[in-house]
Amino acid sequence: MSVGYRTLPDMSDVAASGSLAPPFIDAPANADTVEAIGALSPSRAGDFVTCPLLYRFRVIDQLPEPPSRAATRGTLVHAVLERLFDQPAPDRTVQAARALLAPEWERLLSEEPELAQMFSGDAERDAWFGEAHTILDRYFTLEDPRRLEPARRELYVETVLDSGLLLRGYIDRLDIAPNGDVRVVDYKTGTAPRAEFEARALFQMKFYALVLWRLAGRVPRLLQLMYLGNGEILRYAPDEADLRATQRKTEAIWRAIERARSRQDWRPRPGRICDWCAHKALCPAFGGTPPPLPAAAADPYSSRTAAADAGSAARADPLPEIPSPRSFAPDI
Ligand code: SF4
């Protein structure tokens, strides 16, 4: 088991906690009453830091990206793990999880029929399904969902910082212990990062912790990344200093985005991410030519860019989780 910078007692035996959840996580957000100057999710912040041009293609140009098998497998596994907790606690078995795979896949297909085009035939699709089975089985080696009662699953959170920047995103799972301790849980279907890249991997979790802290005035006790690709867990206990530093980093990323936008300077930054980039053919680093910038791109928070970032907060990230090191994670 890989552990973050500080080891904590495992909170895996979180007792039924739903009754404690509302006062903490249903605190009113200020996003409806404070005017935002821009919006950022952890995924899009990571995009910009990894490659400003990738950020542009996704947020400014809003170029479509074909579905990928790895990303879709991640979406499927997340959906199954979310639904698993609909079952009564004693029924949350590995067999129950496996039984959810096919119906959840059918649901995804009905919403996005083009997903079927990811496979050249039944054998390829069956092999992909087999990988999803393996990932789900591995989840059960890490914790016993029969002993958990999550306070929230797929929780959307948002808050506006004093600078006017709106932070938002989806938290896979929130556990709240009887003493009120909060654990933020994120499932990754890839493998755990090497030690030198753990800080990057934790940025997303600290981002969520920052939002929760601002919403409820309480720092989450534990951030837990569950790498189902290789069965490791990364845990970290944040403190207020961590979260203030995360806020400074996030605002620095936003200022860099605004600078790039005002100068219309979206430079490619080639790296391992390029192997998964859907826009390689348009990238100057690979001999391509980006399309002209949309007219609204000069507006720092136009309706077009706002809509793009709102979309970016959606559950599924269009790129697959990349084997460690996760080159798209922030490195500020
Ligand atoms: S191919 Fe690489 S450098 Fe080019 S936009 Fe994509 S991620 Fe950036």
Describe the protein in words.
This protein is of the alpha/beta class and 332 residues long. It has two domains: 177 residues, Alpha-Beta Complex (Lambda Exonuclease, Chain A), CATH 3.90.320; 79 residues, no CATH class. 39% of the residues lie in helices and 13% in strands. The protein is built from nine helices and six strands. Strands 1, 2, 3, 4, 5 and 6 form a six-stranded mixed sheet that branches. Helix 7 links the parallel strand 4 and strand 5. Helix 4 crosses helix 6 and helix 5 packs across helix 6. The longest helix is centred in the last third of the chain and has 24 residues. It is globular, with a radius of gyration of 20 Å. The two termini are 27 Å apart. The N terminus and C terminus are likely disordered. The site of iron/sulfur cluster has 14 residues, from helix 3.
List the helices and strands and how they pair.
Elements: H1 21-25, E1 38-40, H2 42-50, H3 52-60, H4 69-84, H5 94-111, H6 122-142, E2 152-160, E3 165-176, E4 182-188, H7 198-216, E5 222-227, E6 232-236, H8 240-263, H9 303-312
Parallel strand pairs: 1-3, 4-5
Antiparallel strand pairs: 2-3, 3-4, 5-6
Briefly summarize what is shown.
The chain has 332 residues and is α/β, with parallel strands linked by helices. It has nine helices and six strands, in the order H-E-H-H-H-H-H-E-E-E-H-E-E-H-H.
Q: What structural category do the secondary elements indicate? A: alpha/beta
pLDDT < 50 runs, ≥5 residues: 1-10, 12-23, 310-332
Report the CATH topology name of the largest domain. Lambda Exonuclease, Chain A
CATH class call of the largest domain: Alpha Beta
Mean pLDDT: 84
Strand content: 5-15%
User: How many whole angstroms does the radius of gyration measure?
Assistant: 20 Å
How many discrete structural domains? 2
**Each distinct ligand:** iron/sulfur cluster
Largest sheet: 6 strands, mixed
Taking the alpha carbons of the first and last residues, their distance comes to 27 Å
The gross shape turns out to be globular
Number of β-strand runs: 6
Order of helices and strands: HEHHHHHEEEHEEHH
